Amino acid sequence: MTNAHRPSNSSLLFSRREVFQAAAGVTLAVASSRISVGDDSTGSLEFTSKRPPVDQRRFTCPSVEKTIDRVKADIADPQLAWLFENCYPNTLDTTVDFEESDGQPDTFIITGDIDAMWLRDSTAQVWPYLPYMRSDEKLTRLVKGLIHRQNRCILLDPYANAFYKDPTQPSHWASDRPAPIPGVHERKWEIDSLCYPIRLANAYFQRTGDASIFTDEWQNAMRLVVKTFRTEQRKDGTTPYRFLRETSRMLDAPPFDGTGRPIQPVGLIVSGFRPSDDSTLYPFLIPSNLFAIQSLRQLAVIFKEELEDQDFANQCTALADEVQAAIDQYAVRDHLDYGKIYAYEVDGFGNAAFWDDANVPSLMSLAYLGIHQPTDPIYQRTRAFLLSQHNPYYLKGSAAAGQASPHTGKENIWPMGIILRALSSTSQEEVFECVTMLRNTHAGTGFMHESFNKDNPADYSRDWFAWANTLFGELIVKVHDQYPDVLSHRFDD
Fold it and tell me: Are the C-beta atoms of 302 and 317 separated by less than 8 Å?
């Protein structure tokens, strides 16, 4: 997601952000119009829209606009309504580069203040809009174009996590070893980078029935995904992957010549990095291995039922079964206080790390991703641990309580962690608590951030992080549908 730790002062963000904004014609500056989002006892309470002017928006979806109007009308709190309207369309408003070439859609989606596309982020950024595809052909083309672009990225380098649209653009990380090839922004090996394109293609097909996405290009990309997963099981103790970086941050590169700490090959897949783009402590990252199992099973169904390739479908199923057996044996561990729960990382020797990272996939997000039902006993026990004092990355401060990430240190909570807690909750009271914290910790900006200090929300990192913004919007839409009473509340400042 982020490729380097950013200072919490928003004025010190990645310097190329302004360059890309100018080139793309995108602005996050205050729009000239003002919107009324509610009334209080003193009359109309107005907030200034933070959306770009209509003629500067990168992509417009009528169904999304209708949802904004419909949901906002039922939000009693003016500030929360303002946050929702700013955040929900942020991916479409500011990050999309969509075009048609020879009848083929092509979609490139940057993460926000970094002018590169992550396979993970780009999928997650459009995910909340997928329900509108049936009523919006242009949006359907946008998603289809993203699938095509992701195929090209995987085939270019299956170990890379982030890419440029322009292959001649010099990488900010050209000094990494090995150096990124043209078109690659960064080459951090993360299992989930190859899972998210499968998640997107599967969801697109399930919602549209359009099997035309399963082109030779897509099939070749998926075969490369499975080959890479098998290679990174490292059963013979070797890997072609290395990642070295000149940096003062310990988490920016794996130890031992960039290959990571020792593992005992047990069938799990090595992930050099977490979704936070931090290197793993123990190389078997459990949420990402669980995500890989889900992705492999989705591939098996597609190749069997749509492509009539039983042999490759069997290969996908066999690998999924193997990883699942290793999860059951090495990743489900007895905790002194919570019983059998998932460890976050293991090494196959018996060592395990008990914590979580706010980035997705995380242990908290397993219910959101559909890997577990919220009521599954192992998920409930793991979730109870994650929200306790026994999790070193669950922070409580005067401003909020929530999951953190080693990526941003020991004091910063991630809005994404709070959002995922609410999205995976079955308790209206818990959802209300989470929405309250999110509403009160945006530091007056009208947007979500990467992280904020647990005692001072004004001390935050990243002021343009489209995934977090859109995910917040997804939460509010879900709350509107499932817990409307939460949105009928007027919050205290």
Answer: no
